[in-house]
Amino acid sequence: MGENNEESVWDNAHYLDAVINRKKRTIPIASIEYVESRGRKIVLHLGYGEMTFYSKISDIEEQLVDNGFVRVHQSFMVRMSDISKLSRTALKCGNIEVPVSRRYYGELRKMVENY
Prior knowledge:
CATH superfamily: LytTr DNA-binding domain
Number of domains: 1
Order of helices and strands: HEEEEEHEEEEEH
CATH architecture: Beta Barrel
Shape: globular
Number of helices: 3
Number of strands: 10
Mean pLDDT: 90
Low-confidence stretches: 1-10
Helix content: 25-40%
């Protein structure tokens, strides 16, 4: 019985729970390409479209960091393994370009060099 509990806790670590249109949704973190904060809303950019819900990026940051994401801007998080090019002001992540803020650039550069 203990194994089932451990297994379900492990499985939950790979999903992000969000309330979208008053319904609780469970989103596989593996399907998230990058995360954007627009005002009080979070936009999850997925391989098959976007999902938007009310939250703060800081509220979901810890869970995403544990699953390979890194904060690159006040309003953006990307998957570390998807970063293909980094400059002082932006990074290339797949086919998209995401801004990089001065606040996060130094630590991000070190992470990319050591990745």
